[in-house]
Amino acid sequence: MNDRKNSGELPRRQFLAFSGAMGAATFLAGTGGIGDAVAAAAPVHGDTLSGRCPTPPPGAGQSPCPPAQLQPVCGRPTDNDPLWNDVQYCTRGTLPPPPQNPPSCLRTTPDYVVLHGRPENQHNYLLSPSCRITGIECPSLTTSGAENYWNDAWENARSGGSVPVQYPNIGLGINSQNARRFNQLHLHMAGVRASTQRRLQDLESMGRIATQPAQWGAQAHQVPISGPQGTGDRTYRALRLPNLGQNLFALLSRYLVVPYGLNMANQTLIVVPKMTAAGFAGTFYVLSSDNSLHDGTSTCDYLLEYS
Q1: Domain boundaries in the chain?
Q2: Of 130, 203, 282, 297, which is the most buried if we count CB atoms within 10 A?
Q3: What's residue 257's pLDDT?
Q4: pLDDT of residue 117
C-alpha cells in the first residue's frame, strides 16, 4: 500500500476508493470480502511463501520490542491500528475486528511480516515488525538491540529473495509520521524509475553523494532528484553505503537529526540499491529528506513506484 498523505504533498496520487464496510486493513493488505464466520473457519489463501497463515506467536530469539515506558511514543499492544491488527493476525492468529478482513501473510518470521501493498501487484509489498512500533519516531529503533528491518526488507525484496520485487530497479522507503496513513511501522518494498537510478549514478560520478555518514548532512550532498512528471525536483541528502549492516535509523539520528536539530518524526528515508547491466552492484544509495530542506519532502512516494 502507498500511504495516504496528511500533508497534501502529492495531489497527483490517486488512492483506491474503499468503503467503511471493507475496513482499512482490507485496503492495505486484504484478501477480499469474506465474512467473519467464514474467515474464522477457513484457511487464508495466497500465503505461498511462508506456509499457511496464521503462524504461531514469535518465539525465542526475537529482538527486544520497545519497553513499556516507550509505549506512549511507540504504541501499545492493545492499540487498534488496522496494520497492527494485520500483524497480529499473521503472528498470533488473532482475527482483526470487524469490518476488517484477514490479510494475506506473504511471509511471517519472529521479527517481521511481509504483506501486500495496494495496488496489489508483484512490486508493491510492506514489511512490518512483529513488535508494536508506531513508526520512525519510536526511539527504540535507534538502539543497538533493534532489529535491522532495512536489511530484512532488502533480503526479501532482492532477486532471489523470499518476496522479490519484480521490477528492474528496487526501492525501499519509509514515510514520516504526518505522511503515513497507518501507525504501525512499515517499510515499503517497491520499484523505482530507471531515471532515478541513472540520476543517482550521475550524482555519484560528480562526487555529490557522501561516502561517509559524517558527511551526509553537508550542503554538497543535498541533491535534487526528479519525481513523476509534473511534480518537479525534490531535495534529498544522499549517502552511499557498501551494505545495510548498519542501523539506518541510528545513522539518521546520529548524523542528521541530532546535529542539525531536526525532528525524527518528520523524516523520510529511502534506500535504492545500485544496479548496472550486470545486476546489483553491491552498494546502496540512502536518501533522507524532510520539509526543513528547500524543496525537501517528508514522503518517499515521489521516488517509489507502486502501480
Answers
A1: 24-58+73-167, 194-305
A2: 297
A3: 98
A4: 95
In this model, does residue 305 exceed pLDDT 90? yes
Q: What value, to the nearest 5°, has the Cα angle with vertex 36 and ends 17 and 98? A: 55
CA distance 248 to 251: 5
Mean pLDDT of the chain: 85
Q: CA dihedral defined by 274, 277, 282, 287, rounded to 10 degrees?
A: 0
| Exposed / middle / buried, residue 37 (Cβ in 10 Å: 0-12, 13-18, 19+) | exposed
In the predicted model, is pLDDT for residue 175 greater than 80?
yes
Stated pTM of the model: 0.83
